[in-house]
Write a structure and sequence with these properties.
Elements (H helix, E strand, L loop, with lengths): L7 H6 L2 H15 L2 H16 L10 H10 L4 H6 L9 H11 L1 H16 L12
């Protein structure tokens, strides 16, 4: 069975139930997490344009992709767009798994700033 990729026209005109079925079937048939995440990110854009029914669209699939599959370049690129799909502790664990070098750099910078008082901005108590 040949699975056809979805066009942008389909992504912006089909009903949510139809899109949910097609995207899920596409992922089950191809196991292509990169294109699946791009489809879901496109639907997040559709939500931002006013289609309220696409809020947290395919949340279970997104959570499964990020938590149970190997991190791909696409996942790393679009990772921050899906922060609202996860709870805070999950997000922290997931961000450490997705981009460990970035987290290490942030920790080093934070530690260095705490060691040098002249690098910290002065605190003001103005209201």
């Amino acid at each position: 069975m040949q699975i056809q990729p979805l066009s942008f026209r389909q992504l912006f005109h089909l009903k949510p139930k139809t899109l949910e079925t097609r995207i899920t079937d596409f992922y089950q048939a191809t196991q292509n997490s990169s294109i699946t995440l791009q489809y879901i990110l496109t639907l997040k854009v559709r939500y931002q344009l006013g289609a309220a029914e696409f809020d947290h669209f395919l949340k279970d699939l997104v959570r499964d992709l990020f938590m149970n599959t190997k991190a791909t370049r696409t996942m790393k690129r679009f990772f921050h767009y899906f922060e609202d799909y996860f709870m805070a502790p999950e997000w922290k664990t997931l961000s450490a798994r997705i981009s460990p070098q970035r987290n290490f750099g942030e920790k080093v910078v934070t530690k260095l700033r705490s060691l040098f008082p002249f690098a910290r901005p002065e605190e003001t108590s103005e209201p």
